[in-house]
Amino acid sequence: MNQARSRASSFERKLRAVLLVLICWSASGCSKSLPLAAPAAPLSAPTRLCAEGEPPPSCRSAHAVEELLAGDLTIVGMADPPSGSQGAKLLTLRGRAGGRELVFRAKWRPQSSDDLINESRKELAACAVQKLFLDDSEIVAPPTVARCFALSKYRSFVPDEKATFAGIDCVFGFASYWLEDIVSVGAARERKLLVEGAGILDVQRFGRDVEYRRSLARANLLTYAINHGDAHDGQFLLQSTSHGWRAFVVDNSIAFQSIKNPMLLFREDWSQLQVPWLPQRAIDRLSKLSDEDYAGLADIAELERRDGGLVPVHPEVPPIKSDGSAMSWNGDRLRVGLTANEIDLVKSRIHALLARSDLAQLTAEHATPTPPR
Length: 373
Known about the structure:
Elements: H1 2-26, E1 32-33, H2 62-70, E2 74-79, E3 83-84, E4 89-97, E5 100-110, H3 121-130, E6 144-150, H4 151-154, E7 170-177, E8 182-184, H5 185-190, H6 203-208, H7 210-225, E9 236-241, E10 244-249, H8 280-287, H9 291-295, E11 301-306, E12 309-313, E13 327-330, E14 333-336, H10 340-354, H11 359-363
Antiparallel strand pairs: 1-3, 2-4, 4-5, 5-7, 6-7, 8-9, 9-10, 11-12, 11-14, 13-14
């Protein structure tokens, strides 16, 4: 009887949490809108991620950014991001790479900001899924790492913050590289960068701008694969490259589940395919994925207990065996990845895409729209 009451009580708590999120989503005051805060220190050039055909040092490779994010960092400043309501912070960070000091920015989500639907871990998960079919210069979600900031230093900015794990004096969460010099969908339309359609997809630009076409198609493949639950226009950003405008998708923390933002009923749902063309190279890579590739998503990141804190380390070989959960401990090592159900979802959605009868038409060059003369 007590167990039945306990299960009922747990269900009621979850139901209330879901209803609260749905109410918040439908209300206009749930998400703030602020000016972009200035960095707390001058940023080190370059600040842009490398696109195809753009090697360093004019830009930063995604791999180099991940190494930087996982390295020894000092928080120089902390501010609220321009939008969002998930407890994210915009950090100015100081680190070292190539023997020199670098200052850059990152979006930070402490794990304490999670709720039943919105999980910071899924930023890391989305970043890992894109690597199944995209190269370093092709990624569409910002590089993200799991890390734990020393509690004593973190409290300089959040005095009442508590340690995430008992006996470990640090604040655990996920840091994503902050994309500088980007253009929102709304701003792109005001500047006439996007002229046709209502959202991120401009069919005319899709036909003539190779970088825009490829990156937006890749972004759609990612939002489809992870069943993105909140991929509205505000989640897409554009950045200028030497080859055209590059599309990114950000805020991937509502994904890998069936619950979605109810406002998608009135918007384009980018968890479905919206683009008229898909890159054959990405489809070929998806078709060659093995069960081992999918299983690797269970162990995306590992952190090791050292000197009272947690330090990012390269995953062990063989990786830590997953118990099917999102995170688990193996001695002094913490494993972070996708749950067994989340992996099954990604796998089933990719298999469904590959089984589409119109896939050959979607990847054919003639399927790419051309601008009117």
